[in-house]
């Protein structure tokens, strides 16, 4: 958690709204200094499959405090390829209600157990060869949102008195509905979300087999389906070190 927060502070995130959904670790100890500095709002959320309700609560409660809200999990790191600050990247989307950043999946990198003395972004570099069509979204709070899903958000507007939805855009400012191929297909992506879906094999067992899904019972069944881990892990045929351009700066922050 500390690595995740310090990394995102490093690339320009200002504040975190963290929802505690049955945590059983020492999260209070880690978060207290950030809460005292006013960097974190911690919301207790003891709701089974409460992810979407938490998303809506965050928007309705804090939309007037910020221009953008990004909905990401602790195993997801926003990875800028060229910009050093996410504010410089996202300013190009100010006229759009929401933008989806595509996932890049990472696997175990052959680790049975996580090394607590090394960072996540340092240990796990084996990845899929391509971005996937899904990801996570940043929403522009100047717009009104009613429809929340785990990955995409649809803003509402009114045209001649008739309510209509505004579709989200992808990185290339192309509107899309549900999951369609990213376009243009051959353009270079300048941002991705590194999704450390498993980390070590031991963490995969805890997260997917024991801890459970935050969104729905159906999603949980998908997590534990036979062959799911094998299908994911054997697609990690590349090495992606992009995020490590921030590694030395992150280590310096963590040493303070």
TrEMBL record:
Chief location category: membrane
Record's subcellular location: Membrane
Membrane topology annotation: Single-pass membrane protein
Pfam families assigned: Glyco_transf_92 (PF01697)
UniProt xrefs under InterPro entries: Glyco_transf_92
Keywords per UniProt: Glycosyltransferase, Membrane, Transferase, Transmembrane, Transmembrane helix
Entry-linked PANTHER family: GLYCOSYLTRANSFERASE FAMILY 92 PROTEIN
UniProt name for this protein: Glycosyltransferase family 92 protein
Protein source organism: Coprobacter tertius
